[in-house]
Amino acid sequence: MTEYIKGKHWIIGAIIGVAVFIGWYFGLYRTPVDANQGPVYRILYLHVPSAFTAFFTSAILFVTSIWGLKSKSETPMQWSKATAEVGLIFTVLCLATGSIWGRPTWGTWWTWDARLTSTLLLGLLYSGFLLLFAAMSPGPSRKKACAVLGILICANVPIIYKSVTWWRTLHQGTDIVDNRGANMDSTMFTVLMFNMALMLLWSIWLIYIRSKLLKEQDELEAYSLNQAVR
């Protein structure tokens, strides 16, 4: 067992992972069928939580980027890289589930819709962050460049959210909840909120574990370098 990642961390992760899959099961097989869209509507229980989690990780990346600009330590960069990796995973999952929903609903797997395009841009920005991190040597220059990009990634999220109102789009509006409450069946809403909470929790666990692994990797590389110099 490593110094930083103890057995209890993996147990917590396993519990969260099992709960996530249980939530997906209820969403895909146990919730009522939507009267208008039919069974394909059930992909919502994966798609919306994935999208929300991808946006949430951009907020974490914003915080770690600001932290990185003010800190001389490499710890913020480890957290930023971990966050970008997890954010990319959930962005890809969001795009994939959106395509599955779009094929029977719009008649195509992909269209250059404003929300889809801006979400694709989010995935490209996450990828760009990871490529930039890998291309530059550790130090103030990499920290500054990655921090600026991390802030820009978060700035893209409000554009994604408002895209359905700023431009003509095929994508349905953000009408799950309004001033009158939930705009869907109570069972559907409960399962959706349950899945969103679990996937957010899962993303936090993934970021935490990945950041610790990156810290161990950096320390092993530093140790190996010191041994080689001797």
What does this structure look like?
There is one protein chain. The protein has six helices and two strands, in the order αααααββα. By secondary structure, it is mainly α. The chain has a single domain, classed as Four Helix Bundle (Hemerythrin (Met), subunit A) (Up-down Bundle). Helix 1 (7-30) runs antiparallel to helix 6, helix 2 runs antiparallel to helix 5 (140-166) and helix 2 (44-70) packs parallel to helix 6 (186-229). It is globular and about 70 Å long. The mean pLDDT is 87.
Radius of gyration (CA) equals 20 Å
Low-confidence stretches at least 5 residues in length (pLDDT < 50)? none
The helicity comes to over 70%
Structural domain tally? 1
What profile does the largest beta sheet have?
Answer: 2 strands, antiparallel
Count the beta strands: 2
Count of runs of 4 or more consecutive helical residues: 6
CATH architecture: Up-down Bundle
Strand order of the largest sheet: 1-2
User: Class in CATH?
Assistant: Mainly Alpha
Strand content: under 5%
Helices and strands, in order, run as: HHHHHEEH
The CATH topology is given as Four Helix Bundle (Hemerythrin (Met), subunit A)
Alpha-carbon distance between the termini?
28 Å
Global geometry:
globular
> What is the average of the pLDDT values?
87
Counting helices, strands and paired strands, the structural category is mainly alpha
Summarize the structure.
The protein is mainly alpha-helical and 230 residues long. The protein is 77% helix and 2% strand.
